[in-house]
Amino acid sequence: MRRFLLLLVLAVFAVPLAIQQKWLAVPPRWDPWAPLDIRLAPNLLTPFKLWRLQDDPALCRQALATSPLRYTALADSAPAADCPLQNSLRIQASGLRLSSSFIASCPLAAAFGLFERHALQPAAQEVFGQPVALVEHLGSFACRTISGSQRRSQHASANALDIAGFRLRDGRRISVLRDWPGEGAEARFLRQVQQGACDSFNVTLGPDYNAAHRDHFHVDMGLLRMCR
Ligand SMILES: [Zn+2]
């Protein structure tokens, strides 16, 4: 037991400290203090690196510079606002087009970049042999509570996005509502995308979670970890 505790203390405190002080050299993707690089596939440290972007606009810009995301930074809202926004961006496009621009917290924007590169496009190439050209979404920021509860939704801080479907380069449309229940290539693609999303976003909920999600994937960067 004592040996286990010692190992735990080493893992949680000593190793990150040694890396931070540069006593121990590790590649950037295994260095918790190195800025997030969206070109590298997510790993165990990614949730921590995404979380660090929350209150650090400079670190956020550094991370987003490693992705094709096109965005404008938004001014922080007044403290009196019902659903104040801090360190938020308006995402206009990425390596693909969006059905419309959306507001995102920095961690959500960076996670979207990871998702596009490491889950969405590889799944489209594998199943259809072509990339996704457009993501159809139902919005991100909405000053509201979770439906059927008193708790604030992650949407209230632009920390969540609802993805409804995709359009491939040849114009073919894939819809969560229509194609999730099927058995064909579209359904296989959607399942792969939903599973892949779990590596980038903290929470990914789809039609199997409940009826409220029958027509979209809800992804968010809240404190929970869920993949359903
Ligand atoms: Zn949602």
Descriptive report:
The longest helix is centred in the middle third of the chain and has 23 residues, at 106-128. The protein contains six helices and ten strands. β6 and β7 form a beta hairpin. The relative contact order is 0.12. With 228 residues, the chain is of the alpha+beta class. It folds into two domains: 1-34, no CATH class; 45-76 and 85-227, no CATH class. The chain binds zinc ion.
Keywords:
20% strand, alpha+beta, 7-stranded mixed β-sheet, 3-stranded antiparallel β-sheet, binds zinc ion, 34% helix, 2 domains
Shape: globular
Report the uncertain regions: none
| Whole-number count of domains | 2
List cofactors, ions and other ligands. Answer: zinc ion
Mean pLDDT, to the nearest integer, reads 92
N/C terminus separation: 35 Å
Layout of secondary structure:
Layout: H1 2-20, H2 46-52, H3 57-64, E1 70-73, E2 88-93, E3 97-98, E4 102-105, H4 106-128, E5 132-139, E6 160-168, E7 173-175, H5 176-179, H6 185-200, E8 203-205, E9 217-220, E10 226-227
Parallel strand pairs: 3-5, 8-10
Antiparallel strand pairs: 1-2, 2-4, 5-6, 6-7, 6-9, 8-9
Bound molecules: zinc ion (ZN).
Zinc ion is lined by residues 155, 160, 162, 218.
Please provide a brief summary of the model.
The chain is globular.
